[in-house]
Amino acid sequence: MRFVPDHLVLSVVVGSRAYGLETEESDVDRRGVFAAPTPLFWRLDKPPTHVEGPLPEQFSWEVERFCVLALEANPTVLECLWSPIVEHAAPAGRDLLALRRAFLSRRACRTFTGYADAQFRRLDPARPKWKQAMHMIRLMISGLHLVREGEPLVRMDAHRDRLLALRRGEIPWPEVERWRAELGAAFTALGDRSALPGLPDRSAVDDYLTAVRKALL
């Protein structure tokens, strides 16, 4: 069975093209959500939680797995819900986009900074991977905007020049460290004054998932 594209409910472009940070060499990175027919879950062998392809740089989650990751404030998954480039949205995909704020919680502060810190620890200051460094900073900018304003910042237009200079290796490493420290301090300074709710709206997500499963009986 071809879960993608036959059962695809949402497909968006992510990565540099969604962030406004693309170059001539940038790929088109696609992320999507598919909804497996409900009777397949009655079998011993369950549908996959995710599939790769069929297009290059395409990755899709089954709708339940996507919802679980979004409730956990997974940065990659949350940013899919705010991508400015939506290539396909079936009715269940449009409903998912309309529900996107139900997934948000203050847990995002920890996940966005945690993912960025993990990327930073993998960087070698003597020979840094500048593209990775750029995305580490970009993730912190996106997360800080989410905590302050209640939604992640996907388009990086206001930060484009400086981020692309970082990607080209034109910013000295000590300045990169200062930039990261400033963003980290801004997270800390917010304290409990986050625009995000304490917990996500799991009930609304349950209702959505139930409706999707009933529709696919």
UniProtKB/TrEMBL annotation:
Annotated source species: Planomonospora sphaerica
The keyword Transferase is assigned to this record: yes
Keywords attached to this entry: Transferase
Highest taxon listed in the record's lineage: Bacteria
The protein, known as: Nucleotidyltransferase
Key word Transferase present: yes
Recorded GO MF terms: transferase activity
